[in-house]
């Protein structure tokens, strides 16, 4: 079956512009995560969605970052007024449920470069 | 709070040699433990996980890991590596719905 997909795969933008990243999770997966991966670093948690519950936004680094999810389907991560330090790979993952024992299935990521 | 330490940022090894990638964690409660692999330009995929039971866990591609509660470690091992094992390996721990990932270890297999 289809895995997690993300688009675009690469995005180059100018400082100050807004960008929108998209994630299509695996069908039936109620939990969805966004992470940021800077070069040579581990994964930095950004935001978590579980079904129709209020998202956990505790990892968002600033109010320039926001994300939405429609039901249990597509999610978009928006970065407003991009800065050079936003350059990173943004990974999306989905899982069957919210428990810590659940495996996460990752998309290939969106590589964002802010010039 | 929980944290994960992967002591080696890079591990070079020759093909067919054994390898061990180290992972130590700290947590005030029992946790679930995972190893993920990331091949170039791809997302992460699960290698293996420890939830409970036997402390020796076997995963895909011939990898295994041993959970050691007293040393709070979950080291990843493979008795004989292949060129195709060259990738980034991430250890992760979780109890609630937000896992904590280590910084990753780059395994470089030389012919």
Unreliable stretches covering 5 or more consecutive residues of chain A: none
Please state the average pLDDT score of chain B. Answer: 93
Percentage of residues assigned to helices of chain B: under 10%
Radius of gyration of chain A: 13 Å
Distance between the termini of chain A: 37 Å
Order of helices and strands of chain A: EEEEEEEEEE
Gross morphology of chain B = globular
Mean pLDDT reading of chain A? 93
Shape of chain A: globular
Give the count of helical stretches of chain A.
0
The largest contact between protein chains, plus residue counts on each side, is: A-B, 25 and 25 residues
Secondary structure tally: strands of chain A: 10
Sheet with the most strands, sense and barrel status of chain A:
6 strands, mixed
* Count of runs of 4 or more consecutive helical residues of chain B: 0
Order of helices and strands of chain B: EEEEEEEEEEEE
Oligomer: heterodimer
Rounded to the nearest angstrom, the radius of gyration of chain B is: 13 Å
Through-space gap between termini of chain B: 41 Å
What helical percentage do the residues of chain A reach?
under 10%
Structural class of chain B: mainly beta
Unreliable stretches covering 5 or more consecutive residues of chain B: none
